[in-house]
Amino acid sequence: MTARELDAAGVHDPALRAAYTRCRELNARHGRTYFLATRLLTPRQRPAVHALYGFARWADDIVDDLDPALAPEQRARALAELDEELLGALRTGRGGHPVIAALADTAARYAIDPAHFTDFMRSMGMDLYVTEYPTLDDLRVYMHGSAAVIGLQVLPVLDTVAPREEAAPHAAALGVAFQLTNFLRDVGEDLERGRIYLPRDRLAAHGVDRDLLLWCRRAGRTDARVRAALRELCETTRGVYREAEPGIAMLHPVSRPCVRAAFVLYRAILDRIEAAGYAVLHRRAVVPRRRRAAVALGGLAGVTASRARGALTGDLPRVPGHSWDRTEDRTEGDPVERAPVEPPKEAPPTRRRGAQRGGVLS
Fold it and tell me: Which pTM value belongs to this model?
């Protein structure tokens, strides 16, 4: 986290500044698309978004990326300990672990509903024992906590020009769209973990089951039945993007370029899946770096246009209960000068959700 971002966010306590910096490092290392999009936010907003990502990533690691020898019961205990620490931090506004401390501070500053974190942790617990979902409705129960609430957590940070309750369903839908995209992109990797995040009835309608998916994974081939099922699920996911899209215009102008960039980049993953003939069981569909850079440049142009229209005056978004000097915000809160167009180099992704949960996050 840069000093400029932390100063703009009103974070002055040295321990908290270090905590937010830790969360930013997690985002930069693990969330390529997500991190790139956050560079289009104002410096004031970025620490909060990084804190939300950092916590989601930490919980995600407990579920999947710790010592592979750990039994589900051991992971469940670790998750329960995290949940207990989280609840205490949300009550007091303080936490012992840096990630928890940053999250608690963000939740307090933006008055984020604690129920969103409770729902998130419940879905994380499901990952320890549930390996497939009979129907899309069953999967949506899981995605409410693992994806929809991520959109709802971030919404107060982004702020809106429409009533927040009107924008909330679109924010939730965007989280679900991102995660469905991740499920389609990472179906092969999830299969190796013993999980299938595609509705069993939708697969069965095309004659697809776990054994056929495993055969495609091992053989490096895509059966026509699998291709048909993935085609249908891609169309379903595009429908969720259509539900989400009207919400972008409901956001404050300073937040729209970031969300629009994430929207375009994640939806482009579906294009890559389709262009590859749905061959995702043995390879990962990736949006090329050049395309990501082009979208970032387009987002940067949107930020510049908002500034020219006078939208970046510091009026919104603001932390509840805090006042901001508008003159300072025009110079220090403006992301235009230093927003990079190339994403940072990172370690290869290790899991499907990549903390955005938010589908939002990887």
Answer: 0.81
